[in-house]
Design a protein that fits this description.
The chain is an alpha/beta fold. It is built from 16 helices and 13 strands. The chain has a seven-stranded mixed beta sheet with strand order 2-10-9-8-7-3-4, sandwiched between helices. Strands 1-12 form a two-stranded parallel ribbon. The longest helix is centred in the last third of the chain and has 31 residues, at 329-359. The protein starts with a helix and ends with a helix.
Length: 450
């Protein structure tokens, strides 16, 4: 047959192929490698996917879902992609700093119209995580090795991994969440930072703090700025939810613009994953706000070298999409409208869950659900209560009590409220110092024993 004939030709084409016996590899080069603990977020998501219960739903992953529980592509993104297809664009490399139209638009979005634009060094980044990592590499190369970075407790778990892998091992937690009131522990936060050494790096969340959903008030941000000036801190602001928190791009940029207005030198990692649904495109920007243009030029060049050594240059497709949204008034206005609809649905689900819990007389006060903002809510549930939701109700969330509000919709909110009531009336609430995922707590205890 034709197939047999082609197989014979293939064998003749490689007559000198030698099969090495496995015994030749007598030493396992990677024998010392151990299996790491699974990432708590992706590990929980894997459990959800393996669950066969037809009524299951997930509040784990921080990605927006429609009221039907489906992934969402912004219509403006589809529109721009269709336009780009007609343009017949090439796929050439970008410069190390990325797409210039994209970086200019990103700078304007986060900082607004400002006379200080010429002292801001802006680079395209691999979303927020990539921006964090490049900045961390820059810090490790250009600041004293002993420089500590202060990180809120709790925070996005990957913050620790990003800084550790870049060589920044002097990481200090500052209090942020009050487990008793499910609110911001502002006094604890400020007391801790007042004791920090001068010129420390302090990581802040621009808005919609992950995972608590709790932000300082404008008045509290003012106090933070005063302390930053007094202690000569280097603020590092993680901005992952601009526009997603309140539906207002300008309002959600309050902290960043305040720091700029007050003449501070600081760094911002900016992401378009959440606020434009560009999750898999890895689109973001990294901004260094410097003291003057000359310093800006030097920092810009050095950050280019960090990028060159890491991945040479960023991907082009997502940046082109965002550039056409940010720099075209019609596209920009359509994006703002769609973003407002997304943010409003999240706010509506917060209210619906709180109201459903109150309606069925669930023990406790649930106002914190509507007082928090953004993608996540720190529910206040203990790990044992979360286990009841997971194992009995097939509702998946982090054992820290963190819930992704985007996973809630009009079809499942009543069931979620019933499950929470069952959990809080069945399991005793065990208060932890902070509601950190148990896998992380266990890991820390094991390290202390060693």
């Amino acid at each position: 047959s034709f197939t047999n004939h082609m197989n014979k030709l293939a064998r003749l084409a490689r007559p000198n192929l030698v099969r090495m016996p496995m015994a030749a590899f007598s030493t396992n080069v990677w024998e010392h490698i151990t299996m790491p603990a699974p990432d708590p977020i992706f590990g929980m998501n894997a459990r959800f996917k393996a669950d066969k219960d037809p009524n299951k739903f997930s509040l784990v992953i921080g990605a927006y879902r429609t009221n039907e529980g489906k992934p969402y592509v912004f219509p403006i993104v589809k529109k721009v992609e269709e336009q780009m297809l007609k343009e017949g664009l090439d796929k050439e490399y970008l410069n190390m700093q990325g797409d210039d139209l994209f970086t200019a638009g990103s700078k304007k979005l986060i900082f607004g119209e400002t006379e200080h634009a010429d002292r801001i060094a802006t680079h395209q980044a691999l979303s927020g995580t990539g921006g964090l990592r490049v900045a961390a590499t820059f810090f490790a190369q250009n600041l004293p090795k002993s420089t500590p970075i202060y990180i809120s407790d709790p925070t996005w778990p990957n913050h620790f991994r990003v800084f550790t892998d870049a060589g920044m091992e002097n990481q200090v937690k500052y209090p942020y969440y009050d487990t008793k009131t499910n609110s911001l522990n502002f006094s604890g936060m400020m007391d801790s930072l007042k004791k920090a050494p001068d010129k420390a790096i302090v990581l802040f969340h621009a808005c919609a703090h992950n995972p608590t959903g709790i932000d300082p008030t404008p008045e509290q941000w003012d106090e933070v700025v005063k302390l930053v000036k007094e202690k000569q801190f280097l603020p590092f602001i993680d901005s992952a939810y601009q526009g997603y928190a309140t539906g207002d791009l300008d309002k959600d940029a309050y902290s960043v613009r305040l720091f700029l207005k007050e003449g501070l030198q600081f760094v911002v990692a900016q992401s378009y994953a959440k606020n434009c649904g560009m999750y898999g495109e890895r689109v973001g920007a990294l901004h260094f706000v410097c003291s003057d243009k000359d310093t800006r030029d030097k920092v810009f060049a050095q950050v280019n070298l960090c990028i060159r050594g890491a991945y040479s240059n960023p991907p082009i497709h997502g940046a082109r999409i965002m550039a056409r949204i940010l720099n075209d008034e019609k596209n920009f206005n359509q994006w703002k409208k769609e973003l407002k609809e997304v943010a409003d649905r999240i706010l509506a689900m917060r209210s619906s869950l709180r109201d459903s819990l109150v309606e069925i007389n669930t023990p406790g006060n649930w106002d914190h659900i509507v007082n928090q903002i953004g993608m996540f809510s720190y529910s206040g549930l203990s790990p044992e209560q979360c286990d009841i939701l997971i194992n009995k109700w097939h509702i998946y969330l982090m054992r820290s009590g963190r819930m992704s509000i985007s996973g809630i919709n009009t079809n499942n909110v009543k069931r979620l409220a019933e499950a929470i009531k069952d959990a809080v009336t069945t399991a005793p609430k065990i208060q932890l110092t902070t509601y950190t995922d148990r896998t992380i707590i266990t890991d820390l205890l094991q390290k202390k024993k060693k």
